[in-house]
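Exercise 7.
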Amino acid sequence: MTVVTTMAAVAVMVFAGVPAAASAAPTSCRTVPVDADPILHSDAARSEFGVDGSGVKVGIISNSFSTLPSPEYSSVDDNIADGLLPGPGNPCGYTTPVQIVVADPPGIQDDEGRSMAQLVHGIAPGAELFWASAGPQLGEMGTAITELQKAGVDVIVDDVILPGEPFFQESTITQQIAAVRAAGITYLSAAGNDTALARTPRPKQDVTPIGGWRTEQYRPVACDLDAKDPDQKSVLDAITSDALRQDAVSFDCLDFDPGEAVDVVSNITTLPAVVAVSDKEARLPIVFQWAEPFGGPEGTGTAKARFEMFVTFAGQGTQVIETLIPDSPLRSSSPTVDITNLLDPTDLTADELDMDITIVRYLDGTPESDLAPALGYIVPTDGLQWAVSAEYWRSEGPDEVGRSIVGHNGAPAAITVAATGATTDERLEMFSSIGPVRYFLGPEDDATGTAERLAEPRKIVKPTILSVDGSQQTVYPQGPETAPGVWRFYGTSSATPVAGGVVALALQLDPDLTPDEVETLLTETASPVASPYVSIADDDSVGAGIIDARALLTRVAEGLPPLPAGAPPVRMLPVTGAASVETAWGAGVLGIGLLAVGAAVVVGRRQRV
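Solution. The predicted structure, written as tokens, is:
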């Protein structure tokens, strides 16, 4: 088979799945290397199987694509000229431009979606790319998926985190992903970057994720806060005096201890200033939910139970009480806890603080409010390591500590992509979100606002797979600069489009693969790795392991039907005027040809019969 990676042809013959040596090394027509290639073996997959993603349509959903101002930042035209995006003038011959399906909304300027497009193009340069902005609202994310489906894409990748999605049941977006997968679209979603590690664990503890917590059922106990810490009296005062709770007949507190002891305060030692929003301000976001149906379109129903989270920081002679209460009727909140006044104003990074969490339930004397659902929280810091240690540092009994994949990012029908480093020996990036996802309610009917309570919690193993982040791109200074105007792009937002490019290669080789088959083959051919955490299982941290594109395409090729007996040789014409190459089709021989004429790429592939 002939693989055209540049304007020169490289001939490779494959017999019974064993490659012969390339006749010449390809000359790059890109200004930036494809960093994931040697790790995922995607360069070998392209070369040995003669694929570049041609004929496959990949949709990308993120914030914005082309809103960054020039000349401060590179433009789409710059990226095309550098061989990093397809379009007229692309030096590698890929001249079909990215198609804009849903335009960028005003006010969003990060162009992370263009960085993602560069990474898809690096792995599968022949794939046709489509862009849809997710916008700032949940409904706009749904519109992006719908419009990409209408455009006829085969693959969708997204890196969107929607804090308002439910933790404990399928969201409307999750159900939409299931629908497009049933329609034949393979959907990949970033796991998120919300793992926070206890980097300085307490005695007899380990370095392990502590940035999320949930329990299967609320455990009510008396709110005896003074027994834990006299400073907590201010929490008790807030509970009994705040006008928001005057309609409550009684209240109680969550017992954080899953054993026989009683503990209504969960302590975490933090470095909160790492989430500073400026050099003069530091805030810590928290998302708290419980397992009641969201009710109605995008959560317009009314909660029957009423919970409240108190976050207390004690230190430097000051105490701050932050009352985090979900805005009824929604069962979620994502406030930011302002702890700026607790820090040294001359150095916001120098302080450790003790953060105490208390969760309170209010009862109005009716059976409807006397609920004890699953509940929990995450701290979505998007990669910033704010945690030092925690009182509750590992899962025990009905409680899970460290889990941070939520919403559609953990959709059962999505391939959830975690991140491994392109430039480090880490098999899992420390920030890469972990699972599993657990549902306590069935899918919600938006028309009625009801959802069936499951007899047993449903566990969805997440993440699905590991892909490479840290790839270089030229859009935005999101990471270290490796050359003028070139930066590394870290996070599961970077790993996911790389995985999407690998899927495009597989779909070119066999366009009849279903999303179920893609996921099965992707996971079965992955290179297993161990969880880096003693408290977290492999399935919940690294999934099936690291993508191996060459192994994946080998399995895909094995599943293709044999060619008809006596099939004639396939003549593959190089593009440089050199002698033609013939590959004989025979028993156990795989041959795939690329014919490039000008800017067009024509792919001959073995067909099902």
